[in-house]
Amino acid sequence: MKGLIAKKVGMTQVFDEDGNLTPVTVIRVEPNKVVALKDKETFGYDAVVLGVDEKKKSTVTKPYAGQFPENVAPVQHLKEFRDFDGEVKVGDEVGVELFESTRYLDVTATSKGKGFQGVMKRWGFHGGRSTHGSKFHREPGGTGQCTSPGRCFKNIKMPGRMGRERVTVQNLRIVKIDPELKVVMVRGSVPGNKDCALIIKSAVKKEL
């Protein structure tokens, strides 16, 4: 498995040799520093801990700095990747070149928050008639039962906070990789705001 910590730049579009337009998301991949290595003998599994975005010294507490070796500065984002494909050492840097032989990616991020929303926007309810006089337009309708059991069951689709959830989009095709600009372009959209942190991995359901 291959994986890196990246940042969402935004969306644009590119044209191929035949003139076909493809919408793409631009993902910037700063060099990820190897913070730690985990093996089966000590932890029970093999993993590589990567970090990116160096923190200011004034904001680093002693407990947080204690997990970093002497030759590695404390970073903002940390992520553990199990069964990492490739031989690396603590202090090495891994860049976008890791995905040169990969065709599809899985991207994970926190989706945009929509705030408190009703059932029509949150769950796609049809709603009532828009005509005058019905008095039923955007409400959820009945949610409970009669005397028995006389309550609402759990997990009923109702109004509430929408978005700001951990979302993974699978099988995004890599359109272009630019090692000089440190960016990778994938076909389609990925969750999250601009400049949000992303976890990009080689696709689980598609080879290469």
Question: What does this 3D model show about the protein?
Answer:
The protein is mostly beta strands. It has two domains: 3-116 and 166-202, Double Stranded RNA Binding Domain, CATH 3.30.160; 117-163, no CATH class. The protein has helices at 40-43, 62-65, 119-123, and strands at residues 3-15, 21-28, 32-38, 47-54, 75-82, 93-94, 104-110, 113-117, 160-163, 166-178, 183-187, 197-202. A hairpin with a 5-residue loop joins strand 1 (3-15) and strand 2 (21-28). The longest helix is centred in the middle third of the chain and has 5 residues, at 119-123. The model has no long low-confidence stretch (mean pLDDT 92).
Strand order of the largest sheet: 1-2-11-10-7-12
Shape: extended
Mean pLDDT: 92
- Please provide the ordered H/E string of secondary-structure elements: EEEHEHEEEEHEEEE
Radius of gyration from the alpha-carbon trace, in angstroms: 23 Å
How many domains? The number is 2
**What is the β-strand count?**
12
Cα distance, first to last residue?
Answer: 10 Å
According to CATH, what is the topology of the largest domain?
A: Double Stranded RNA Binding Domain
What is the architecture of the largest domain at the second tier of CATH?
Answer: 2-Layer Sandwich
Q: Briefly, what CATH class of the largest domain?
A: Alpha Beta
Given helix and strand content, the structural type is: mainly beta
Give start-end ranges of low-pLDDT stretches.
none
Q: Kindly state the percentage of residues in helix.
A: under 10%
Content of β-strand:
35-45%
Note the total helix count.
Answer: 3
Biggest sheet: strands, sense, closure?
6 strands, antiparallel, barrel
